[in-house]
């Protein structure tokens, strides 16, 4: 019986082609595999540095409001609240939700993503219409005399700059 010399190479080529295409197809990235950036709400909710702000946001029913829209948030951390003698969120959560909402909105510039490099000495309006005066001393920017101590925490819907005291009460 004669051996067919051409069948072996064709079978080997066919198997190699099938295996290669399987590897190529399996390497495609799916949308659900891509890690999505966190929203401003998620950054604040997951960081212990903002535990007081987190409780105030929950009380003010603002957790959904800070998930969308491009904003710049001058966020006071727990130390900033401490400078205002607010050592527990209960001081503010005892107030009406509208008052807590106003406190948070006083620290937000809406419809703008102002990274630190883009800040200018200027006056901006907060979401409540309060004036936020941006000043610069040496290389440090301040918002109504509250120094930006940690700039440019990027989020999917804006940027957070941590400030060392409340900018507007």
**Roughly how many Å apart are the termini?**
97 Å
Instruction: Please identify, by name, the CATH architecture.
Output: Roll
Q: Outline the biggest β-sheet.
A: 7 strands, mixed
User: What's the number of helices?
Assistant: 6
Which range best describes the helical content: under 10%, 10-25%, 25-40%, 40-55%, 55-70% or over 70%?
Answer: 25-40%
CATH homologous superfamily? FAS1 domain
Mean pLDDT: 89
Point out poorly predicted stretches.
Answer: none
Order of helices and strands: HHHEHHHEEEEEE
DSSP strand tally: 7
Question: What is the radius of gyration computed over CA atoms, rounded to a whole number of angstroms?
Answer: 26 Å
Q: Provide the domain count.
A: 1
- Structural category is alpha+beta
Give the strand content.
15-25%
**What is the strand arrangement across the widest sheet?**
2-1-7-6-5-4-3
CATH hierarchy class name:
Mainly Beta
Q: What shape does the CA trace take?
A: elongated
CATH-defined topology: FAS1 domain
């Amino acid at each position: 019986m004669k051996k067919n010399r051409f069948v072996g190479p064709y079978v080997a080529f066919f198997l190699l082609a099938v295996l290669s295409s399987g590897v190529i197809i399996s390497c495609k990235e799916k949308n659900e595999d891509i890690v999505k950036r966190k929203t401003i709400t998620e950054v604040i909710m997951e960081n212990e540095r903002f535990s007081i702000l987190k409780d105030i946001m929950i009380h003010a029913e603002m957790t959904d409001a800070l998930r969308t829209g491009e904003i710049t948030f001058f966020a006071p951390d727990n130390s900033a609240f401490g400078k205002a003698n607010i050592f527990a969120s209960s001081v503010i959560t005892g107030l009406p939700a509208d008052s807590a909402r106003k406190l948070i909105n006083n620290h937000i510039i809406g419809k703008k993503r102002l990274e630190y490099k883009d800040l200018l000495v200027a006056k901006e309006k907060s979401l409540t219409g309060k004036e936020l005066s941006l000043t610069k001393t040496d290389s440090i920017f301040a918002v109504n005399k509250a120094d930006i101590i940690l700039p440019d925490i990027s989020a999917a819907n804006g940027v957070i700059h941590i400030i060392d005291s409340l900018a507007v009460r």
